[in-house]
Specification:
13 strands, single chain, 2 domains, 4-stranded antiparallel sheet, alpha/beta, Aspartate Aminotransferase, domain 1, binds pyridoxal-5'-phosphate, 7-stranded mixed sheet
Length: 365
């Protein structure tokens, strides 16, 4: 063994050594339909105004860690109930980390639970923080298996259950009544996190129901709405619970450029909501066009992407890549996603290019 092999064996945890770094493919020059980004850039006049605001940002000082004006705008514009505050994260990925950091203990590994297939960061972050992840398979039609969830909650007593609403990578919205039953079953032994990353495309939310459920956390992000690059997520919950997450938040986790850009975006939230409306209309058109193709199954989506089952996912992705179109092959995420690909809804032009290339890939299959 070399010195470094020995050093790493002596110091780095086995589960980290065994893990592969999170891989993101190189996509420059591609039509990028792999990461649920909003395809629309900021309108030109808004870019100029944003530039002026960013020029005034105070870069030589640390951010003011209360983030009062940004939080105030989020609460006022994003439907946070009266008397409720938010905790900010560097993306909602960091909110996931903060929640898990508050429950994972040295003497008892906390159990984190989610229906699977789920957003990959739930299981990854649990692993990194030394918590146990329990995934409960969805039914074959990708709806929530409520009975299995309730049985698993009774058996494993999870500290946190994550429910993405709508779900990623499946795109569907779980039945609201099932989510309510799961929140109820957790009671005062577990925290329910409703992850509304795709809320702008579902037009439904648990945010206004926070006062009904004291063990509920509602988490959101501006990423899928059109600001993935600024890295800002937030979560709300009953004040006493929210305060616990605030304790583990790194004091300066949101940088001043993000703060300025986010306040600017919130002042123009209609622009982003209008873009979301265009994406929703395109989702309907694209889903109908895909559903008409032989051998292709389109699953229902309330998000800004579609999950498709195709005859041969590896073949389809390779042919799309050759045409410089990047989608995500999710086949290996879970056996129930065999031959499934996930396609972000793009602009009408991008979707037309995807549809043409995808049709050609089916014919030559
Ligand atoms: C994309 C996504 C997130 C992460 O969003 P960021 O704010 O960009 O970190 C969280 N949850 C789900 C379900 C997502 O798909």
């Amino acid at each position: 063994m070399t010195f470094l092999d020995q050093l790493i064996a002596n110091t780095i945890r086995p589960e980290i050594r065994a893990d592969a770094p999170y891989h993101v493919p190189e996509t420059s020059g591609f039509i990028k339909l792999d990461a649920m980004e909003n395809p629309y850039p900021l309108p030109l006049h808004m870019r100029a105004e944003l530039g002026r605001r960013l020029a005034d940002a105070v870069l030589n000082r640390y951010p003011v860690p209360s983030y009062a004006s940004l939080k105030h705008k989020i609460c006022a514009r994003m439907g946070v109930p009266k008397g409720y505050d938010v905790v900010l994260g560097n993306g909602s990925d960091e909110c996931i980390t903060m929640i898990m950091q508050t429950v994972a203990t040295r003497d008892r590994r906390a159990v984190i639970m989610a229906p699977v297939p789920a957003f990959v960061m739930y299981a990854r972050t649990a692993m990194v923080l030394g918590a146990d992840f329990v995934g409960i398979p969805l039914k074959a039609d990708l709806t929530l298996d409520k009975e299995a969830m309730l049985a698993a909650i009774a058996e494993h007593k999870p500290a946190v259950v994550f429910l993405a609403y709508p779900n990623n990578p499946t795109g569907n919205l779980f039945a609201e009544a099932d989510v309510v039953d799961i929140i109820g079953a957790l009671g005062d032994t577990g925290i329910a996190v409703v992850d509304e990353a795709y809320g702008p495309f579902a037009r439904t939310s648990f945010m206004h129901r926070l006062p009904e459920f004291e063990n509920l956390v509602v988490m959101r992000t501006v990423s899928k709405l059109g600001l993935a690059g600024i890295r800002l997520g937030y979560m709300s919950a009953a004040p006493q619970l929210l305060e616990q997450f605030e304790k583990v938040r790194p004091p300066y986790n949101v940088n001043v450029l993000t703060q300025v850009a986010a306040e600017f975006a919130l002042d123009h939230i209609d622009v982003f909501n209008d873009q979301a409306s265009l994406i929703i209309a395109e989702r309907t058109r694209l889903a109908a066009a895909l559903a008409a193709l032989p051998g292709v199954t389109v699953f229902p989506s309330a998000a800004n992407f579609l999950l498709l089952r195709v005859p041969d996912a590896i073949d389809a992705c390779a042919k799309l890549e050759a045409d410089k179109i990047m989608v995500k092959n999710v086949s290996r995420m879970h056996q129930m996603l065999a031959n499934c690909i996930r396609v972000t809804v793009g602009t009408p032009e991008e979707n037309a290019a995807f549809l043409d290339a995808f049709k050609a890939s089916l014919i030559s299959h």
